[in-house]
């Protein structure tokens, strides 16, 4: 296998595979991360995202492939030799030590001069706004403060690449939102390469320059958040992102007198405005469109419109989810709270297939 390192890559994973006995966990992965880029590994539990991060960190020995950091082959190097700082899901702070001692522990073990340790701790504490906490012990800190200290412990190492393994998963929703903003600001200040693992799509969409969506040890799509959200390469990616996820109508792709259209249980959606990415073939297919791309009682002339009866209304504060039956299948529409209809009401929905995604019925790939 002839492997090369792109000159612009801060981290390059090439042909990486990992087997646990007869079980293939990661399968020939390729991933090039640019210098200073914030990349999120996203996927459901068991997809291999944390395993991939641990391979990059050197915590797991891979079965095949190579890992490069800053152009250097680190495939078989120890974690301490890779020039990385890692933040784990658990804070892993020493309870008997103060914040200052927790931050300096690794540097003291490495024999770093005292004045250099003091300089790095002062810088990290200022960036993370934890100066008043330096003499406290972990038991006297909140969850958010503990996670800041855990990030600071990686920060004082003064490395090129930071690895985050679901660092916010133990926090409540409000604190997660606050620390998410702080991590984004931290990246903007430091401009270091960051690789971040999460199963939370909101974290991924808000933090990432690019997202690698994983499933079953394989990277399904690696692109900027708007591309992944609006042009998913397959049905899994389309359904994983979004809350609620994309609406899917099961049916058939057909070529009639008016051109290609999607048919399902009494409805026919014209596809004259849909941008096919490969030559369509008649057969089973799924038509996908996001709830916010559907208009409700708008009065506009849409390429496709129909009437339906409201089944359930879910108020969500700033907006409302309206659930209908379309072609006998569940279908959601996101509307402003002030425009929400009542359950049992007959409404008109409309949309432009240009905003939709069409997937073949067998492999689930984008058409």
Automatic annotation (TrEMBL):
Using the record's annotation, list all stretches that form the ABC transporter domain: 11-241
Could you give a GO molecular-function term held by this entry? ATP binding
- Domain of life assignment: Bacteria
Among InterPro entries, the record links this protein to: AAA+_ATPase, ABC_transporter-like_ATP-bd, ABC_transporter-like_CS, ABC_transpr_MalK-like, ABC_transpr_MalK/UgpC-like, Mo/tungstate-bd_C_term_dom, NA-bd_OB-fold, P-loop_NTPase
Against PROSITE patterns, the record matches this protein to:
ABC_TRANSPORTER_1, ABC_TRANSPORTER_2
**Which SMART domains does UniProt cross-reference here?**
AAA
Keywords carried by this UniProt record: ATP-binding, Nucleotide-binding, Transport
The reply to whether Transcription figures as a keyword in the UniProt entry is no
The cross-references to Pfam families, in alphabetical order and at most eight, read: ABC_tran, TOBE_2
User: Which PANTHER family is this protein grouped with?
Assistant: MALTODEXTRIN IMPORT ATP-BINDING PROTEIN MSMX, OSMOPROTECTIVE COMPOUNDS UPTAKE ATP-BINDING PROTEIN GGTA
Its name, as the record gives it, is ABC transporter ATP-binding protein
**Can you name the source organism?**
Ollibium composti
Top-down, what is the taxonomic lineage of the species of origin? Bacteria, Pseudomonadati, Pseudomonadota, Alphaproteobacteria, Hyphomicrobiales
């Amino acid at each position: 296998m002839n492997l090369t390192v792109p000159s612009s890559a801060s981290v390059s994973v090439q042909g990486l595979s990992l087997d646990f006995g007869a079980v293939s966990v990661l399968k020939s992965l390729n991933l090039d991360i640019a210098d200073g880029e914030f990349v999120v590994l996203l996927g459901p539990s068991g997809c291999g995202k944390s395993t991939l991060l641990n391979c990059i960190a050197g915590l797991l020995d891979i079965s095949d492939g190579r890992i490069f950091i800053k152009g250097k082959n680190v495939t078989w190097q120890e974690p301490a030799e890779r020039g990385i700082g890692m933040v784990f899901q658990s804070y892993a702070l020493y309870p008997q030590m103060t914040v200052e001692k927790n931050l300096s522990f690794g540097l003291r073990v490495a024999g770093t001069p005292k004045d250099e340790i003091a300089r790095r701790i002062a810088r990290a504490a200022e960036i993370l706004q934890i100066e008043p906490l330096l003499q406290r012990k972990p038991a006297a800190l909140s969850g958010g403060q503990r996670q800041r200290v855990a990030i600071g412990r990686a920060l004082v190492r003064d490395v090129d690449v930071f690895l985050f393994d679901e660092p916010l998963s133990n926090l409540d929703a409000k604190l997660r939102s606050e620390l998410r903003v702080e991590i984004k600001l931290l990246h903007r200040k430091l401009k270091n390469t960051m690789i971040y693992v999460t199963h939370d799509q909101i974290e991924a969409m808000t933090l990432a320059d690019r997202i690698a969506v994983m499933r079953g040890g394989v990277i399904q799509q690696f692109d900027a958040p708007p591309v992944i959200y609006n042009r998913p390469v397959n049905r899994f990616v389309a359904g994983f992102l979004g809350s609620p996820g994309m609406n899917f109508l099961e049916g058939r792709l057909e070529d009639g007198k008016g051109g290609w259209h999607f048919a399902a249980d009494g409805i026919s959606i014209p596809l004259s405005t849909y941008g096919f990415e490969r030559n369509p073939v008649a057969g089973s297919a799924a038509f996908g469109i996001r709830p916010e791309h559907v208009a409700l009682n708008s009065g506009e002339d849409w390429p496709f419109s129909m009437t339906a009866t409201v089944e359930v209304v879910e108020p969500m504060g700033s907006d409302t989810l309206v659930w209908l039956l379309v072609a006998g299948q569940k279908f959601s529409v996101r509307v402003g709270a002030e425009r929400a209809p009542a359950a049992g009401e007959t409404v008109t929905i409309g949309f432009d297939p240009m905003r939709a995604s069409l997937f073949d019925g067998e492999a689930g790939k984008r058409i």
